[in-house]
Write a structure and sequence with these properties.
The chain is of the alpha+beta class. About 30% of the residues lie in helices and about 20% in strands. The strands form three sheets. A two-stranded parallel sheet has the order 1-2. The protein has a two-stranded antiparallel ribbon with strand order 3-4. A two-stranded antiparallel sheet has the order 5-6. Helix 1 links the parallel strand 1 and strand 2. The radius of gyration is 17 Å and the shape is flat. Bound molecules: flavin-adenine dinucleotide.
Length: about 110
């Protein structure tokens, strides 16, 4: 018997399930129509062994140390920079990596490390 059933194992459902289960000692059933967790941020290795984002590229931005620390309990990190974007936009726009990024508490953008 479950206390809660959560539909959707993306960011929202996964965090809610973890908080209910680990934070409040509730028994949670989480279901998803896709055969994996992670929702639209899901990544996997393709047939060439390259890590891809199945539903489109995702990077993680936060300036919240609390959020960064919480997620660090479940993942390692890989530092990320918009080097391609900088070259692509050179000449007509400031680099997105220096103009619009938000950062973690150490001042760097990060992406999850599989
Ligand atoms: C191309 C793209 C790029 C993005 N890039 C970024 C980025 O770089 N950084 C960033 O922070 N955000 C990015 N986002 C946004 C990010 O994907 C969403 O904010 C995040 O995935 C939302 O999480 P969620 O849990 O609300 O929804 P979702 O990730 O959509 O998860 C919902 C889950 O619920 C399941 N579901 C829905 N309905 C049902 C049902 N009836 N029955 C069973 N299962 C169901 C779905 O299969 C899905 O797995 C991007 C989004 C897209 C599409």
């Amino acid at each position: 018997m479950f206390d809660y059933m959560i539909v959707g194992a993306g960011f929202a459902g996964s965090v809610l399930a973890e908080r209910l289960a680990a934070g409040m000692n509730k028994k949670v059933l989480i279901v998803d129509r896709r055969p994996h967790i992670g929702g639209n941020a899901y990544d996997c290795y393709d047939e060439h062994g390259i890590l891809i984002h199945k539903y489109g590229p995702h990077i993680f931005h936060t300036n919240s140390a609390e959020i960064f620390d919480y997620l660090s309990r479940f993942t390692a990190w890989r530092q990320y920079q918009h080097r391609g974007a900088r070259a692509w936009m050179a000449g007509w726009c400031r680099s997105r990596s220096t103009s619009t990024r938000s950062t973690n508490s150490t001042g760097s953008p990060w992406t999850l490390k599989a």
